[in-house]
Amino acid sequence: MPTRHLLLAVLVAALWGVNFIAIHASLEQFPPLFLVALRFAVLAVPTLLLVPRPQVPTRWLLGYGLGFGTAQFLFLYLGMAAGFPAGLASLVLQASAPFTVVLGGLLLGEHLTRRRALGVGIAVAGLALVGLTRAQATSWLPFLLVVLGALGWAFGNLASRMAAPPKPLHLTLWMSVVPPLPMLALSLVVEGPSRIAGSLTTSLSAEAAPAWVGLAYTVVVGTVVGSGIWVWLMARHPAGVVAPFSMLVPVVGILAAWLALGEVPVPLQLLGGALVLVGIWLASRPAPTRSSPDPLPETERVPV
């Protein structure tokens, strides 16, 4: 990979790591369920008007939108709104990689090698260690919500893989069409019209500016710019060369949360995070084959 492309891959990881700080800022103003609907509605409108529909079966488009778009961010935002730190959220969400390996084996009949099984086990042990430290500090619930978000991402990975889109960025953008209406309906039922209206009414104040900046960052920088660069790199290099750069996301996320929000991870959380990253690396590495020098990995990483 040329140096310029390597720097672009690092840049995308940095953009996605900072994305969790942007989400935190938006959650300070908007209730989590409504924020999910708002985030994707902002992206869905220009997508419907400007982006051609991807040439994939509707069921896989819906599956990707419900898994990656709806379930992932529903539980991620609920977990962060319940107090789970932004930096640790960037780490725990990477559990989507080992989840994808396991679900691929169970649902798609993909071969689970001993190395991948070992990676999954190490990643789960790391997650358990992070969860234990959070349970001692507060409770298990916020941690489990973010884990469910990672599971939603994994189901989205499987749907994306089955869709096999000729233009992956089109699928990523059209995924945004699925969440707004069901999430708005859920928000109206759970959070209520008065809470939604209150968040919108007060959002015009100067104090709410960071929430709008965070939302703009999430939509424009995190999704459009970050995804665009990532797909561009994937089209020019083997996926096994590009995908490992996604493991820099929690490193940037934890560091950014430390600097911006004062979230200082305890040593056991750092140890658990290291185990998660090692497990992801083992589980996501492609198995060497004699017929192809650059085999594709079995797990497809998609952007946050």
TrEMBL record:
What protein family is recorded?
Answer: Belongs to the EamA transporter family.
Q: How does it sit in the membrane?
A: Multi-pass membrane protein
Pfam families, A to Z: EamA
Ordered alphabetically, the record's keywords are: Membrane, Transmembrane, Transmembrane helix
Q: How is this protein annotated for GO cellular component? A: membrane
Q: Where is the EamA domain?
A: 6-130, 143-284
> Where found in the cell?
Membrane
Where the protein is mainly located, per its record? membrane
Organism encoding this protein: Phycicoccus avicenniae
Q: What is this protein called?
A: EamA family transporter
Q: Which domain of life is it from?
A: Bacteria
